């Protein structure tokens, strides 16, 4: 059974070796002349002006994360069920239907309570015009 | 040593390093990422032991979901992500307790199974067998689990909701 | 092969499950002023489950491949848990309605926890026991934190949760070791395997038993796992505290009774002394700290720790030839304790409407303002101390007699228990003293009819059981698990 994982392991090893080898090879071949403009992040977003401070994320993210976990666990149970589905027959089907229905009640509940609605947009950037200008200047300078 | 034993030693070593770094890391986000390493190694050890289903569950649930919740928790609670701020002054005591637990468990396991004089036959515990065991023998606990999940979700929503008091 | 399921045997559980889903769904469609209707709905469901349980009296059924038993022991505790659930529902109505807490969600979570309690005494399988215990605890963590605007309630939920999860983890590790040693999760099979030759794994088995006990020791707030109890009891909504201190604690004890007297009985010589130490420390520390309390719920919290010590005492007598008597004494004590404790909490719920701080001083003058409640509270306090003419006396008497009959360490334990009972008189009588002797502001107190009803009923029961102890003491010997 473990032998089944050998190709996976070999693939993983090859991928790792490829990354190391190509990085090493290119470090040998490329010239290295850094300048501030080259070290700036390119097409990876802006340089952060300041760290977000004291701004809490909406607690609704937490509800979404909880839902993710609960349904993740539910899905896990589907694996062994699906594999042995033929042997379990109708009994297994009913069992899983009950299980999913119960967890689904939670989904309905959250939906009805408005837990999935984002009517108040997560606070838009509450920055003053002055701050915005400052930022632009910084960008131009950078 | 067989290939399996080599694999175990490697996985266990990496997992242990991850666990040590997890509790010594100064940055909580780094700590959460070290947790990924440790949990993934535990999952891999399950795979090496032939518990295929449990291994993948470990990786899907713990690495895939629980650590995500950790990171969400860090973002939501305004936890100081910087250094030292979450450190309390109990390191020595914690180390002592951890070492005592380690010594105790090593003694117990060693006393019961001895070092390497026992050849364990790996049971081929396939996903299908696990399925039959859950859905035929453990029907009631399985359905009860759905109530625990339901209660956890509802409770989490209630506690997370903002009060709309008039 | 798919299992054949005895649907009659699990009818109470099925009714309860259906009810809690209906409560949750109906609540979504109720407008806020009508949210309280979730309580009568829950009550109807619990009552139906109660009736269904009554049809199982005398049954001895096994289902789910031997992991779920509906025998006299299980039925006795199911009746008990469902009765407690009804009483807690009575206590909750006004409290949650006036506090505008999330009522539908509260009743849903409370019923989930009750479902766990009802499954516990039938669970004769490690996995089943673990799931039942989690089903009791998980919703309880959440409803302990339901007073969201009060940091003390947040603290209550959080402490309860952290310590609960830690002890669950230790217990689960122990269960995995037990399975490793015996190769079974069924309690009867484990009992058989542990009676035989373990091939050098005896030490591991004993350690595993300790790990498993840890999980339950937390649940019943035994020393040294009692730290969460006072803070949680104080911060949680008072009806929730009443539930935790009675049903949830009793659920822990039913699990412990099954494990110790069915699965681990052959190791009694090892764990008996451990329980003796648990018992002595739990009752002594609970009582000594209770002496210094100024707040009524904290006082009752330490009192409930001390009471857990008395309930742990019969465990220490296992293996001394009085197993049956000790088992019955433990069951009797748990039942009697729940009646008097629920009654005391009913009075506290009533007083909490006047003063949410619930200091003992707030009870001053209650005798004049609400004579019925004051009288009932006096009866409960006297009963908790174990003084006649109350039911508490018989509870202590049976435990005491089992200790004397066991001889040896049993006699020592019985003496410690009597000394502790005397100490406990000092703090139990502090509340009646306030109510009767201390002048308080004269303002007639109006307590909700249901709460008064519960207090009066419990007080009547405490007196009635003293006169006819067989009202309760008749059943535990018939529902023993010893020797099965």
Q: Which strand-content bin applies to the residues of chain C?
A: under 5%
Basic shape of chain C: globular
SS element count, helices of chain B: 6
CATH topology of the largest domain in chain B: Four Helix Bundle (Hemerythrin (Met), subunit A)
Shape of chain B: globular
- Share of β-strand residues of chain B: under 5%
Number of domains of chain B: 2
The termini of chain B sit apart by 71 Å
Q: What level of helicity do the residues of chain B show?
A: over 70%
The tally of beta strands of chain B, per DSSP, is 0
The CATH architecture designation of the largest domain in chain B is: Up-down Bundle
Query: From N to C, what is the helix and strand string of chain C?
Result: HHEEHHHHHHHHHHHHHHHHHH
Helical stretch tally of chain C: 20
Strand order of the largest sheet of chain C: 1-2
Q: How many E strands of chain C? A: 2
End-to-end distance of chain C: 28 Å
Average of the residue pLDDT scores of chain B: 83
Q: What structural class do you assign from the helix and strand content of chain C? A: mainly alpha
Q: Kindly state the mean pLDDT of chain C as a whole number?
A: 90
Key features?
heterotrimer; A: about 140 residues; mainly alpha; about 65% helix; C: mainly alpha; about 0% strand; globular
Describe this structure in words.
The complex is a heterotrimer of chains A (142), B (166) and C (484). The model of chain A is unreliable at 121-129 (pLDDT under 50). Chain A is mostly helical and 142 residues long. Chain A is 65% helix and 0% strand. Chain A has five helices and no strands. Chain B folds into two domains: 3-89, Up-down Bundle (Four Helix Bundle (Hemerythrin (Met), subunit A)), CATH 1.20.120.1200; 126-166. With 166 residues, chain B is mostly helical. The longest helix of chain B is centred in the middle third of the chain and has 25 residues, at 52-76. Chain B has helices at residues 3-24, 28-48, 52-76, 91-113, 127-137, 139-160. Chain C is mainly α and 484 residues long. Chain C has 20 helices and two strands. Chain C has a two-stranded antiparallel ribbon with strand order 1-2. In chain C, helix 15 (371-385) packs antiparallel against helix 18 and helix 16 packs across helix 19 (449-467). Chain C starts with 10 loop residues before the first helix and ends in an 11-residue tail after the last helix. Chains A and B meet through helix 3 and helix 4 of A and helix 3, helix 5 and helix 6 of B.
